[in-house]
Amino acid sequence: MTNRIINESFGPTIRTDKLSQRESVAVVIAAIEAEKPYIFCDAIEGLAYTDAWRDAFLAIRKKANPSMAFRLEMGGLWALHGAMIRNALNDDLLLADALRKILPPYSGGDMTLYRGEGFKNRCKRAYGLCWTSEEPVARYFAKDRASDYPAGTVLLRAEVPKASIVASIHDLDPENGEFEYLVDRRFLKPAMIRVLERLPFTPRPVFRLADFLPK
């Protein structure tokens, strides 16, 4: 009886949340169909309030078919919100599929690309989406994120086939400075990837307020 009372009391809230999620997804798709990049960016930000990330990107994968003009505007979206989108969605394969629908398609050839990756992700071949054409950039990320992975990180070099490259963010946003390319790992074969270096787990320094006060 108690469980029924609790379920009934939360029922309207749950129904309202589901409606909000559907509405937020509808706004995302409507912005694409209306060719309104700035409204689309606002709608993507709005997903943070409804937690409808997966539904939204499933809908993008299924329904989106924008013009090239719209797609060219999306480089700025990725520069501003790419990390937030990846973390919130937590599904690089779905994200790769959806981004192929809203970013300009990559038109270059095969490339040598680099990535700083968690050692365990390397063991599982669960490579992330973001790679760079510049080894020093990848080395920086491998060192900077060594504190986030208890097993440490690795610096990877990959001979990436053009079919694997979702988009060249560097071409869309050259001022970004990371020479970034988005790569769908489903096209990467083991023989294409080399580990250049393994970096151990490095705890971040812990600072105390007393360290900054005059002695």
Describe this structure in words.
This protein is of the alpha+beta class and 215 residues long. The strands form two sheets. It has a three-stranded antiparallel β-sheet with strand order 1-3-6. Strands 2-5-4 form a three-stranded antiparallel β-sheet. α1 runs antiparallel to α2 and α4 packs antiparallel against α5. It has helices spanning 2-33, 37-50, 53-63, 68-89, 92-102, 119-124, 135-144, 169-172, and strands at residues 111-118, 130-132, 153-160, 165-168, 180-183, 193-199. 51% of the residues lie in helices and 16% in strands. It is globular and about 55 Å long. The longest helix is centred in the N-terminal third of the chain and has 32 residues, at 2-33.
- Rg calc: 21 Å
Order of helical and strand elements:
HHHHHEHEHEEHEE
Structural class: alpha+beta
Poorly predicted runs of 5 or more residues? 1-15
Distance between the amino and carboxyl termini: 63 Å
Give the helix tally. 8
What is the quaternary state of this protein?
single chain
Largest sheet: 3 strands, antiparallel
**Any idea what the shape is?**
globular
Mean pLDDT: 90
Q: How helical, in percent, are the residues?
A: 40-55%
User: How many β-strand runs?
Assistant: 6
Strand content: 15-25%
Spatial order of the strands in the main sheet?
1-3-6
